Amino acid sequence: MEYTIGTQALSTRDIVYRSLKNQILLLELPPGTGISEKEISLKFSVSRTPVREAFVRLAQEGLLAVYPQRGTVVSLIDSELVEEARFMREHLERAVIRESCSAFQARNLIDLKANLDKQKLCIEDQDYKEMFMLDEEFHHVIFMGCNKKNTWEVIQQIKVHLNRSRMLKLTADHNWEHLYRQHYGLYEAIEQHNIQQGDQIMQEHMALTIADQEMLMEKYPQYYKQRSAD
Amino acid sequence: MEYTIGTQALSTRDIVYRSLKNQILLLELPPGTGISEKEISLKFSVSRTPVREAFVRLAQEGLLAVYPQRGTVVSLIDSELVEEARFMREHLERAVIRESCSAFQARNLIDLKANLDKQKLCIEDQDYKEMFMLDEEFHHVIFMGCNKKNTWEVIQQIKVHLNRSRMLKLTADHNWEHLYRQHYGLYEAIEQHNIQQGDQIMQEHMALTIADQEMLMEKYPQYYKQRSAD
DNA sequence: ACTACCATACTTGTATGGTAGTATGGTAGT
DNA sequence: ACTACCATACTACCATACAAGTATGGTAGT
């Protein structure tokens, strides 16, 4: 009874799901774009069944809006949802950093330091793409270090709704130096069990991710859901 | 261009999805139960297609575990996930009550008071089923009152993983009187903008929902995922 | 008695055809 | 010119058929 689950090949459904999700998050499929099962099935040279099942998953995540017998569109960005996603992320990340400052696995602390060193290199090399990934990984390691794997997964789900508006903002204007100093401060707080410092820095750190929603809504009104009667 | 979205009839897929989800959460389909698409499609007298799509959704929510070409089982309860669900819920509910204590919609404050009055009646009548629903609704109103509709939705998702172990505990041992006093305290805190009181009470309130996981794991080992090598 | 093998009956995954509801563009009538 | 109507071409939804992998039990061979 040997269960070898982790290594199964990707199904057609998963391939379609991942590809569409990527295209949506990268705005290659802009909000409001109409797509049909048939169109996608032709593009991937597969039948409509796995496409439909990918649609079901994407609809559940709020990335597609399916109107029976009428069509399917890439969902518009819901500014209210974006704001709440920011809210949820802030409070969960702060709760996790506080926990990390009181108890953290030694192994992950080493990873954290190694990550920081790589960040420093990236800034010198101005390798912002790699820096972006290290940023993600830094937060991930923090979650792993205080046994919050599932919480990390939930955050990833929530962040989906932040990603598209962040993509609109063109991430180029990040102040990577500032980001690094904050990361270092978080590392310090964990190492020295300074809960107050950790919480404080994380709060400031989260504030950085606030995109100027109203500005974006004016600039790209066709991408945003207009709150009419509610 | 009249969009009448809210009133569409339930699709076969949704009917199957809701029914299965209910049965799983009520433990009528206990963790570990094997179910097949064909079996369900026969039971509902529908084809496999909508059943499969319901399976996809339930699998994404972590309620089903699908093993390609081998079978599908109702997922075992993951005690680690349960603990993190409790963690996430606590910190989100506390963040929301703090926000509610600083700004709350007048209309929802009225609803909150009305809900409290109904709770009092239920306790007198010992109508615990209705009391259970009012408890849910009470928290829901709080979220609505500080514009956190989507956060409520996320909590509902998270709570799925708490529900089954709470169901095992047999909810009969709730101290409804205590619950009511806490709810009243929360209402007071919102009305009087007492952030500290709100946060304090909510923290205690959340502690109530902690089921004794280890006890449950010993009593129902077949329902729990055994953490082997990890 | 025990083991290796294989037929069979499952499982989920994928493809395809048909159905019902909806948007659209053209046409006939005013 | 404008409106009401209808044929047509879509859409997502559901049913069915086929494909491919897996568990199981029986059987033949040792």
From TrEMBL, chains A, B:
A Pfam family hit? GntR
Regions crossing the membrane = none
Q: Which CDD domains match?
A: WHTH_GntR (cd07377)
Under InterPro entries, the record lists: GntR_C, TF_FadR/GntR_C, Tscrpt_reg_HTH_GntR, WH-like_DNA-bd_sf, WH_DNA-bd_sf
Gene Ontology MF annotations = DNA binding
Q: Which UniProt keywords apply?
A: DNA-binding, Transcription, Transcription regulation
Which Gene3D superfamilies does the record cross-reference, listed alphabetically?
Answer: GntR ligand-binding domain-like, Winged helix-like DNA-binding domain superfamily/Winged helix DNA-binding domain
Q: Does the keyword Membrane apply?
A: no
Organism superkingdom: Bacteria
* UniProt-recorded name of the protein: DNA-binding GntR family transcriptional regulator
